[in-house]
Amino acid sequence: xEETISLQExxxxxxxxxxxxxxxxxxxxxxAGVVSYKVLTPIYETxxxxxxxxxxxxxxxxxxxxxxxxxxxxxTYSVIIKSxxxxxxxxxxxxxxxxxxxxxxxxxxxNAENSQVVNVAVKDPDPAIAVxxxxxxxxxxxxxxxxxxxVDNVSILAPAVMKENPAPIxxxxxxxxxxxxxxxxxxxxxxxxxxxxxxxTLKNDQDIEDVLDLPLLGVISPIKEDATxxxxxxxRRAG
Length: 239
Hints:
Blueprint: H1 2-16, H2 18-39, E1 44-52, H3 60-81, H4 84-94, H5 100-106, E2 107-110, E3 117-124, H6 127-149, E4 154-158, H7 173-198, H8 205-212, H9 227-238
Antiparallel strand pairs: 1-3, 1-4, 2-3
Helix pairs in contact: 2-7, 4-6
């Protein structure tokens, strides 16, 4: 019985504050949309692929050994790509006023397990600059690796290309507004229960019984006079 009453009170509180909850949810969605479309800077991403591969060997055994060597070198190459030895020449060649640390923060190097392909991804507010950084980094790495490692097993598999209508990867306005709607809804519900908890006024006979812990013996109902009675009373007073 108590559980049923608690659920009734719960829904009654939500129903009573439904307008406030809806306003807070809508306000949160609007703020998230304005921030996503008007305030946050769009970030674009592009990537170039580098193939790590030795020259073809005549025997299958040597070919397998070369592949295993390349796979072992890929982790080293991933570190070298983001090192000052590569990024300093990239910074000088592009002349974008970016430091090595700034370039490093824009570049992400990944590769799939047991794959000889290294993916160099670059994020930047300007999609054209992202393409330039990715391709320049790949070209510089291809040249410098011969001096640093004394090997010639790197080739550019797929350079970064400037798309006709590039789409930013961030922010995601729809996702931000959906999250804001959930947060606004939770905030509205929380405030509704808080206001109901802080409201200590007695609204009905049940509240009186709950507070005093005494049975209610009777209720004095307000006496409503109809229009005829009021008119009669007025005439008597006038007379």
